[in-house]
Amino acid sequence: MIALLVGGVLGWSGSTKLFGRNTPVQASGTVLERKLGGLPRATVALRAVGAAELLVALALVALPVPLVTGALAALAGAGFAAYLGYARATAPDSSCGCTARDKAPIGVRAFARAGFVLAGGAVVLADGLAAAGLPAPAGGPWWAELRDRPGAALGLLAAGTALAWLLFGDPDRAVRLPLRRLRLRLFGHPLHGGPGTGGDPEAVPVEGSVELLERSLAWQTVIHVVRSGLREHWDDEGWRFLRYTGLHDTGPGGAEGAGRPVSVVFAMDAKAGLDSPRPPVIRVGVVDEETGERVDVTAGRERPGALLGEGV
What we know:
Strand content: 5-15%
Helix content: 40-55%
Number of helices: 11
Structural class: alpha+beta
Strand order of the largest sheet: 1-2-3-4
Distance between the termini: 54 Å
Number of strands: 4
Order of helices and strands: HHHHHHHHHHHEEEE
């Protein structure tokens, strides 16, 4: 059952990288973008990783050769751990590129994901050694385990799935976000619509706007510039403005990491949320913090189709 579990995780992870439209978001902010010379190359590299993950997943699920498939999975896990170690050492503030939603710097959770794949591959490899007559825990293909011991196999699969969801999924969004929405519907938002606040009772919480922004094409357009979390926000005449800070590279001849400080300002409908029927228009402008002039950060880069606002 371990082969089925690890294969399912790698299949999901690989398919989102290879076929997902948010792959550029995953690649942005990673060490791949910095070392490969830009977001387009990093996106291609991440899709290649996704294709490799899918191949290993298919082998784990379909091939009854645990000695081979376990070795492939263990090598994949070791490769992920090596990549994370290199990224942590050379670019500590970079993200791992594991998922589009996880843009935090590489931490314990990222290494735990790699350890999950490595450990799963090692268990499958041990089954292969046992089948070859070498000293190792006995075992066989996952379908044989399911046939011979259905109760234990399903219990192991359920426990492993829960662990995989905690490591690879988004527990905060799946559990806490619905509870926050329920609280807001029942009691209202404490910063909007209260007596004397002058706020818009229909405006969504700022956290909802940020989550919606980070899924948008506008965010993909300028993510290579952004170097901070949300600095400040304000609402004006139905618009919500979100300001980040960043660095605009001086050009291909500049030193790595060099650039001039800029402010990246997004403007969106203050009432737009994840439950909106259609994606909102999001405008973005980049302003040089020293001169106050607008900066074009899309020159020479592939633009995914975001609407660049005028006068933002």
